[in-house]
Predict the 3D structure of the following.
Amino acid sequence: MRASGGHTDCQEVLYRTVFRRNPPDKTRWPAYKSAFRLPPVSQSRIDDVVAGALTWTEVDLVNIDDSSSRPLRDALEEFGIRVHYHPVGQPRHIVTALGSDRTVAPFVVLGCHGDEGRILLPELGEPIASDQPFNGLLGPDEVRRHLRLPGSFVVSIGCETGRPELAEAFLDAGAVGYFAPQEAPDGHVAFLVALLFFYELTGGMAAVEAAQRARRYDAATHMWRLWSR
């Protein structure tokens, strides 16, 4: 667990992590730094961690073959969040993490790839494939049948996972909110939206408002849509 010491550190986490793998052209560096000047947080929940608390919330981070999940885990821990990291190699792992007797965290992040309102899963061979509850895709039917998310807020960063049918399925599975892109964002944009969402939460903002703030960041992030109950 790592915790930073305030607003400046939060801003630096966003700036440093987003561009670690895809740094901008050096001539545009000042402009990019200016773009990451975030509004001040009057009372950050990170301050509670600095003062001795172990964490202020928890996240189940489900990594379904997504390269940004590990750096996202690091960034969330910088925000004072306890991250339960679940690398997924087969559908049974998803069911164990989000549909079993274990208590699901208040927030769930799906690091995944999607297509037309379904989450893509690793291709499996036999005999492993025949032992799975489902194969290939996690769609609305599979979500309703296998996942149990009572009271959790779900953030998906997979392409085209912000379709109404999939969103309603997550809400039917017990989620209080579902936040995902309707189209296919660039990888760094998806990563940024997740960071912005949790950054707003550190300031005490409610999840619904934090999601709306994150999607309003620029034209690229506007493709995210929020469903809630």
Notes: The chain has nine helices and nine strands. The domain at 7-228 is CATH 3.40.50 (Rossmann fold). Residues 1-8, 28-39 have pLDDT under 50 and may be disordered. Strands lie at 58-63, 82-87, 107-111, 114-115, 118-120, 137-138, 153-156, 177-181, 224-228.
